[in-house]
Design goal:
By secondary structure, this protein is mainly beta. The protein is built from one helix and ten strands; from the N terminus they run E-E-E-E-E-E-E-E-E-E-H.
Length: 135
């Protein structure tokens, strides 16, 4: 099992039903292999360009192939999905850059119909196991 340091930074150009977010308070739910691992607090500022800047330390199973960042918001009629981004772990594991380096990433969000619906910005770092600190 690998430990990940995930920081959900911000969103850009978020909308619901092609209308920019205004009074809605978006938040991000992070899924690893169909299991919710964490969620941010509600963004109270930023409108369609909210920011969270929340850091999480999560365990990622070795069989995991993707992480999903699902931006949702609370409206008068209930919780609505703004959009989701599916990130393959190969994007930040086992590449040219060492795993323990901090990687900043931006991914396009897609709504339930597959339409582009903003961007999610986050950073990820694979935490080295205790034996790797000594090297």
């Amino acid at each position: 099992m690998a430990a990940l340091e995930l920081t959900v930074l911000s969103g850009e150009n978020l909308s619901i039903n092609r209308r920019p977010l205004s009074s809605e308070k978006p938040y991000v739910v992070v899924w690893i292999e169909s299991t919710v691992c964490c969620a941010t607090k509600l963004a109270t500022q930023g409108g369609r360009n909210p920011w969270w800047n929340e850091k999480f330390l999560v365990d990622m199973p070795m069989h995991a192939t993707f992480i999903i960042f699902d931006v949702q918001c609370k409206t008068r009629t209930g919780v609505k999905s703004v959009g989701a981004a599916r990130v393959h772990v190969s994007e930040f594991l086992g590449g040219i850059v060492p795993d323990s380096f901090l990687k900043f990433m931006s991914y396009r969000l897609r709504d339930k119909q597959g339409t582009r619906n903003g961007i999610i910005n986050f950073s990820v770092r694979v935490q080295p196991s205790p034996g790797e600190w000594r090297r």
